Amino acid sequence: MFKLWLIPLLPFLGFLINGIFGRKLxxxxxxxxxxxxxxxxxxxxxxxxxxxxxxxxxKVQAHYFTWIQSGNFNVGWDFxxxxxxxxxxxxxxxxxxxxxxxxxxxxxxxxxxxxFFAYLNLFMFFMLNLVLAANYLILFVGxxxxxxxxxxxxxFYFHKKSATNxxxxxxxxxxxxxxxxxxxMFLVFxxxxxxxxxxxxxxxxxxxxETLTAIALLMLVGAAGKSAQIPLYVWLPDAMEGPTPVSxxxxxxxxxxxxxxxxxRSSVIFLHAPAAMQVVALIGLATAVFAATxxxxxxxxxxxxxxxxxxxxxxxxxxxxxxxxxxxxWHLMTHAFFKALLFLGAGSVIHACxxxxxxxxxxxxxxxxxxxxxxLACGSLAIAxxxxxxxxxxKDAILTAAYAHAPWMFWVGVVTAGMTAFYVWRAFWMxxxxxxxxxxxxxESSWVMLAPLMVLAVLSLAGGFLFNVPEMLKDMxxxxxxxxxxxxxxxxxxxxxxxxxxxxxxxxxxxTELSGKIANALGGVYRLVNDKYRVDEAYDAAIVxxxxxxxxxxxxxxxxxGVIDGAVNGIGARAQNVGGLLRRxxxxxxxxxxxxxxxxxxxxxxLMGIAGGVR
Amino acid sequence: MPASFSPSPDDLLRFLPETILxxxxxxxxxxxxxxxxxxxxxxxxxxxxxxxxxxxATVAANGVPGPAFSNLLIVDGFATYFRVLVISIGIxxxxxxxxxxxxxxxxxxxxxxxxxxxxxGQGIMVASNDLIMIFIGLEISSIASYVLAGYxxxxxxxxxxxxxxxxLGSFATGFxxxxxxxxxxxxxxxxxxxxxxxLAAPDxxxxxxxxxxxxxxxxxAFKVSGAPFQMWAPDVYQGAPxxxxxxxxxxxxxxxxxxxxxxxxxxxxxxxxxxxxxxWVMALASMCVGNFAALTQKxxxxxxxxxxxxHAGYILVALTSRxxxxxxxxxxxxxxxxxxxxxxxxxxxxxxxxxxKYVRIDDLAxxxxxxxxxxxxxxxxxxxxxxxxxxxxxxxxxxxFRAAIESNLTWLTILGxxxxxxxxxxxxRLLVVMYMHEPSEASTVLEPLTPGLRTALVxxxxxxxxxxVVPNFVLGFARNAATFGK
Lengths: 615, 486
Fold this sequence. Notes:
Oligomer: heterodimer
Radius of gyration of chain A: 27 Å
Structural class of chain B: mainly alpha
Number of strands of chain B: 2
Structural class of chain A: mainly alpha
Largest sheet of chain B: 2 strands, antiparallel
Largest sheet of chain A: 2 strands, antiparallel
Distance between the termini of chain B: 22 Å
Order of helices and strands of chain A: HHEEHHHHHHHHHHHHHHHHHHHHHHHHH
Number of strands of chain A: 2
Strand content of chain B: under 5%
Shape of chain A: globular
Number of domains of chain B: 1
């Protein structure tokens, strides 16, 4: 009826065309295909699916073909659209379109232009699958697919070793998350007998709390991987090695919010597992504070925004955890606006400074890049929660809900909001105020890059009251508990934001010496935070090294005794000397291998004999 | 029913696939003096024709299911599934070998004859209803495989691989034979259905049956390279000629798993409670040894050897679940595994160059730049080996762990999934080297892709994707076959 399949198929066609023929196509055609396919799917969502009113039961469901049919196990390629999906579709295709347009100019001088857009379209395909899915397995297909594209795009500048490492890290860390998600899926299947959202959510209220808690916690593991929450957040900051449009699209606006979407989608399960909800809220809050403190000390403009993303995602999880799903989704949306803007703006700044990302080498750019300065100011106001901007509404909704849940969470959230305002505006002042400290002469970006920025700037400012998400989703999620007199809370969180902005202005515009003094005074603490609490090093020492060394020490030296490796270069030279060969082999491996076989079989036989006797 | 001396036409039809393969192999040896020097490629063609004919014969035989030759053989869905699988692997192996044998200046007639004999042996194994027939099939398959592993007589790596494979293989076969002897002593029969009946009797000696099962587990675990009987696999796959490794890592393994499933899901079903824990441990050990040892490998063939041990571990998980779903999952996974492994080995054959000089992981550097098509194919196989959705590998793993969790093997599922998370690391390394490193020496001497190898890449790649996107056809067939005609 709505041809929902068109929505992901269009970008997929874009991927096929650019991926297969892109090498020979002129740039103009590549652009048309890449942008056209995404814009077309945006228009389909916005003009055909969205306005239509014949949604039965608030939902459009479509079954395309039966993917797996085996006994009681039945999974179809099913899509469904309800209001939650609709919001996600608008964000993904809308912001996706803007970023595709921006990228045509940003990537103009890069090698592998067609490859970049092919990957980007493939990403759109998987992301749309993820949000359209009507069962967990299709969602998982999208989930793994976006991870793969993220890996490809992070490692896009593959001549940089750091970029390849970052790509690997993202993939491996996400595998840990996926492991949780896969287990959750299996648990859902054995307990519900289906993976379809309808069936699962209808049956969930009648299931034991322990089961639902286990499922919810395993889902949280998956979500923490994809949405960069403690303890799996480590990949996201490194993922900034990818081109900036990728950071904006995948690592800020869309893919990383998949975890929040998945938890909200599974709200029925979470709501019946209060303990799991509590864990979600705590992890979200902890991540928000933790990442914000790191953000304060960073000098790489993209790293600042990366930690800010981790921190804001923490906010969303806080919203989900305290039961304010619609507030979480609202923040997901406004964050998509202002964080895409901040990243794309950062891209424009980096362009202006000839590829420089260190803010200490910037400064005074408001004279050279006034438009970039203006739009970044809009984005920074929004993330700081300045009254009236989009961030203000959604952040306030989350904090109010947190207050109703546990007041101390509200207070921690407010402090984080203050820190957020501080570090984002610190970046703003360091970039645009003072005198230019870098090399060459900075320049303003092209209009192709600025136009999407302006659209995003308008959305960042006005998106909050244009799209009142809790109002839209009010019949999807249960009414949230009685909210206390909220004007006081609102005033407090606004004040925290304003104080953060004012403090950053004082420290980075008025009294620029002060920050250095504070850093010196804090000494070790400052260095620890600046080194991101050395979590990466700790993971390396505690997990990566033991696995690699353990594998080589234990398995390589004891189990893997192969000698063929050593003989590789001796081809032909002594090949006739079979007697010598026999002697060497017989003196070594074969006997010890045979001993292994014998020992193993003795164990097996004894065990089986005992097991048989016991019975 | 008195055994009649002359077999019925149906019996002959049920045995036709193996008959064709053996006639094909014999014919080749007879033609050798006339064709060998002039048209070495001819033997490959004959081999292909024989395989394809055998494939048709398999389908025809499936039309008249039932026992043959006094119940020694049985044609059921299970037998057909595995016959199609091993014969298809045979076809891919031929495509892999054309150029390789030419490059190494090796005899072609013997090679292809051995290939046909080996597949014939596997066909007998999977269609056997009798332990003696299983043993005969296994020996036909193994002896041909031993020779194939050392096919390039002047290459010492080949010699070492063959010798190891032969000595250890014979040793392990001994265990299997002892097991068979004990079972015969216990039940008075070598027929699987009669063994099942004998073990179900109230006065059956379950301790001795357990010991017999244990001996057979040792023999079979060796053949499928399940830990702790896996140590030969990396050595042999690394040392043998690459197309032979591709074949050894897939066809004999599939056939060995087939009889593993058939024996333990029918004959030894009665004492399942005593063998299940053993297979449980074996499955976990195989996954861990395979995956963790693969992490540090530098040679692609050896890495694939370890990876095949890990994959054997996943299939043993399916066996541990002791259910029809588990059997289905194992069958499906074996097909997916065969496709992705043959494909990966085909790339190794391609980049190896004369004398297989370039088989280190670093030799893949820059492949994407030099030959994007080859790199794209390998990418599909690696993604499937990792288990990314929309590939056969993902779906196979998904189905296996689903079977395991339905049989309440929660811990095995958790540990297995963790293992498959680790596995991503070493497959990913190949992807990184291939796409993100500057071309190496190996890629400068890289030959263009020959039509044979191209086929050996494209067909498995299509199969891998189809198994991931539309698994129903194969899955449905496997599911019906997994009942063993019950």
